[in-house]
Amino acid sequence: MEQILFKDRADAAAQLIPKIPLVDPDKLVVLGIPRGGVPIASQIAVALHAPMDVLLIKKLTTPNNPEYAIGAVGLEDSWIDEIQLISKEELDHQIQQARQLLRERNRIYRNDRPFPQLSGKVVLLVDDGIATGRTLLHAINIVRSNSPQAIWVAVPVSSREAAAQIVPLVDRFICLHQPEPFIGVGRFYQFFPSVSDREVQGAIYANEC
Description:
Helix content: 25-40%
Shape: globular
Largest sheet: 5 strands, parallel
Strand order of the largest sheet: 2-1-6-7-8
Structural class: alpha/beta
Number of strands: 8
CATH architecture of the domain at 9-55 and 117-208: 3-Layer(aba) Sandwich
């Protein structure tokens, strides 16, 4: 039987914050994974007095199962794990659509401003949960290419399979729960609505202020 672990994303962030080690705010950058990870990342950044931004990335899925990630796309590159599950035509179409969406989100969320300097920083990647882990694995690759001092991941809940893949790739993996069975992230929240673009904008603005 599935267990409700969090009332909502705010509750998840409140539970997660005490588990994150204190770091000099000048050495820390918090990056939320849009859209669901952004409200949690913002709450964490406010608590740690650290700068926060969004890492623009979108998962790639199969036509028959839009929840199953086979890879991910960033603004400049893509990462595909199970290419045999999708035709080249469908893959190219998804990548093109994803890039167009990410460019639009970059304009809406960030006003196309330069990405924060990650070199020599402790980068904390935040999401509201990890199912397959493929989106976050690609996010880790993007961050690593920017020469950070360390990469940390903080999530309220994760599947054990995804955690096993991520742990060897980061310097610190902060996760409150790894329940079994793991059917979907939203099953562990009492209230798990979609996060709107306006909410993402509000979270970023709140951190800037």
